[in-house]
Amino acid sequence: MQMTDLPPAFVLFAAAALLAFVRGKARWVIALAAPVLTLADAWAIIDIGASTVVPFMGYQINPVHVHAATPVFATIFCIMLGGGMLFALNQKRQVELPAAFVYAGGALGVCFSGDLISMFIFWEIMTLGSTVVIFSGRQEGSERSGLRYFGLHAVGGVLLLIGIVIVINQRMYAGEVDPLAFRHFHEMVSGWTSLSWESLGMWLVLIGMLINAGAPPFSAWIGDSYPEGSESGSVFLSAFTTKTAIFTLMVGFAGTELLIYLGLWMALYGIVYAILENDMRRILAYSIVNQVGFMMVGIGIGTELAIDGASAHAFAHIIYKALLLMSAGSVLYATGKRKCTELGGLYRTMPVTMWCGIIGALAISSFPLTSGFTTKSMIVAAVSEQGAVMADLGQSHNHLIVAWFLLEAASAGVFLHAGIKFPWFVFFQKDSGLRPPEVPWNMRTAMIIFAAFCVLLGVFPGPLYEILPYKGVAAKFGATVYSFEHVMQMLGLLLFSGLSFFVLLPMLKRTETISLDFDWIWRKGVPRFWNEVAMPILQTLNRAQKAIFDFFPGAGSESRLPPELARRIGTNWAVSVPVLTITMMLLLYLVVYFVVPMLT
Amino acid sequence: MSDPIRKYLNLNDPKLIKWYWIVGLIVLGIIMAVDLAVHHHAHFAKDGIDIDTTPEFYPLYGFAASFFLVIVAKTLSIALKRKDSYYADD
Predict the structure, then answer these.
(1) DSSP A519-535
(2) Distance, in angstroms, between B85 CA and closest chain A CA?
(3) Which chain B residues touch A339 with a CB distance below 8 Å?
(4) Which has fewest Cβ within 10 Å: A21, A219, A233, A488?
(5) What element of type H or E holds B81?
(6) Which residue of B has its CA nearest to A352?
């Protein structure tokens, strides 16, 4: 058996197992070598186009497969893991790093999954790894937030699984050669508006993926859980879950128009919530939603340029978002504080953290000469390009016109909510009186490397364009990205967005508040409903039931459970109560089974 | 970081802030002036939409969009804002 027969994720799982046991220098060697080895293995597979089929529970699954977008996503996942490890290595937590390896392994595994079963397995491994990363954050809210994260993603995973089972069955029934294949659901593109039983499976798969992407109404989990990771934990968290979802949407649902609308919503939602936010890492978490929104629009458009744009943007985004969270993580590491209201004036003692944070902020705002400029612009260009194509064909494309104007507005808004707001409130603003020392060398080095990447990708995007799904299209775009016209447009948009920040600064002053979101429903609404509505009803029913059962002979005190047993199983009901309940349910069943059909 | 740089980053110094505003506005003025010389192509020419070719479209749009987003956020915050211990109170 050769290395290229194994999913590259296995290298990371092996590293995770080793890391759990070794201490000292060996830990550093493994943590930094494993991502490099994995990258080499991934590219060996990509270069020969390897595809491995193995039997699994009576199916033939395909855990080593190269999709068009696999090279770019596999590469960035490995780079991200390596950089994140360098940033994280000085800390004492024993569980976080192995968990991060498992998490990244799951993400990488999804990128190489040629069938739906492998995809699902790696997807769930990713959920487990990321939950442990959140738990090991040991912040005040880590535990509860981690449980909410796990609960939501478990639900998403179950929906995905049901969807996959339905899809596979439908394909088998239709006599498809490869019913398990993880491929494009082209049926959805033509008819996504028709919600029918035939498309139920695909819808469930789509919803499962959208939950992980942070699409509405499930955007809140990103802002809820990512800031609860440790300084380094949230760096890992920012990279894998949403971008893996983007990858799967790209493979499965490119060109599905619904994604354009969801993406636009996310791009604007992220800005509005980040404007109102006080926790520095939650600001950055909301801006993940905003950036993923851009990618979703690209996938929804689905043309070659749009897909290239979405994948290139995912690549660039992972680096500058990790850089921003490293910068915020360093501030947390040095000061122990997360709220903008408690921070400010840190430029005095944390210059490296500040400059790297500023470079990340410029990159996310897609300033010329940074990675955002050479990647995000591709998505926006794809919108207007597709508009022109559809105009030639005489097809209605008003949604693309609206999308273009909203994306330009969102591009301006990114500078406002992340580009200026984050560095301003953390490093400048008022003098908080904090004089923390600069962070250890490994954290600084990781930030400097990622900052260099942000600039290099902005100045020389060529190598990145080379590994995109449609490299010819990307290269053609690359020839025009630095046109005088385009640079001036971006500068005009961004600098005047900056002006509005400083004009409105009094309105942007931070307060110690949070903003409600759809997650209110399951964090407050459902518990409140349970306590104030459901429980009183149940208690009334319980009293009524007692009254009824007390009526029957044999339900008296002598047939009750022995006190010790009753205490252990938490009830003091007589055995006859469940027996009677079951009898009544059977009676109800008989009525439904025989009587209802007679009536209809 | 050397002290001269640090001195220029002290944004609590009102004199320095004034200078930054002046320099900033000059830069914005230059952008607006240069924008007049740029020939902007319409992104949706085939639909007869050419607002994005008008001079100063991008600066004005960038300013207006950001301004609008802040207003929207502030308006929504009236209904959505809670103390940050809201969920922890249970």
Answers:
(1) THIIIIIHHHHIIIIIH
(2) 8
(3) 84
(4) A21
(5) strand B81-83
(6) B1
Chain B residue with minimum CA distance to A398? B47
Contact A388 B60 (CB under 8 A): no
**Residue A4 in tokens:** 């290229």
Structure tokens at B50: 């050419």
Structure confidence at residue A197 as a pLDDT band (50, 70, 90): confident
The verdict on a CB contact (< 8 Å) between B60 and A413 is no
Assess contact for A437 and A334: CB atoms under 8 A. Answer: yes
A599 has a pLDDT exceeding 80: no
A216-220, A472-476, B3-7: least confident range: B3-7
Q: Do B58 and A409 touch (CB under 8 A)?
A: no
Range from A79-88, A453-462, A588-597 carrying the lowest mean pLDDT: A588-597
CB B74 within 8 A of CB B67: no
Q: Are A252 and A334 in contact (CB under 8 A)?
A: no
* Count of other CB atoms within 10 angstroms of residue A348: 16
Q: Would you say the C-alpha torsion A378, A383, A385, A389 has a positive or negative sign?
A: positive
Tell me the nearest-neighbour CA distance from B28 into chain A, angstroms: 7
Nearest CA-CA distance, residue A499 and chain B, Å: 7
> Hey, are the CB atoms on A404 and B81 less than 8 Å from each other?
no
pLDDT for A367 beyond 90: yes
Answer whether B70 sits within 8 Å of A347, measured CB to CB.
no
SS3 A62: strand
ipTM at complex level: 0.93
Chain segment A11-25, per-residue pLDDT in tens? 999 999 999 888 888
The SS3 assignment for A174 reads coil
Q: What is the phi/psi pair of residue A22, to 5°?
A: -80, 155
Q: Where are the domains of chain A?
A: 1-253, 255-515, 519-551, 561-600
A254's CB contacts (< 8 A; 6+ apart) are A184, A189, A299, A302, A307
Q: What is the DSSP letter of A228?
A: G
Q: Which residues contact A45 (CB under 8 A, 6 or more apart)?
A: A4, A8, A64, A66, A112
* Interface contact A430, partner B, CB < 8 A: yes
Runs of H (alpha helix) within A174-257: 186-191, 200-213, 220-225, 233-253
Using CA atoms, how far apart are residues A413 and A499, in angstroms rounded to an integer?
A: 12
Residue B4 reports pLDDT greater than 70: no
Nearest Cβ partner of B43 from A404, A490, A500? A404
Q: Determine the length of chain A.
A: 600
Nearest-by-CA chain A residue for B25 = A499
Average pLDDT, chain A: 90
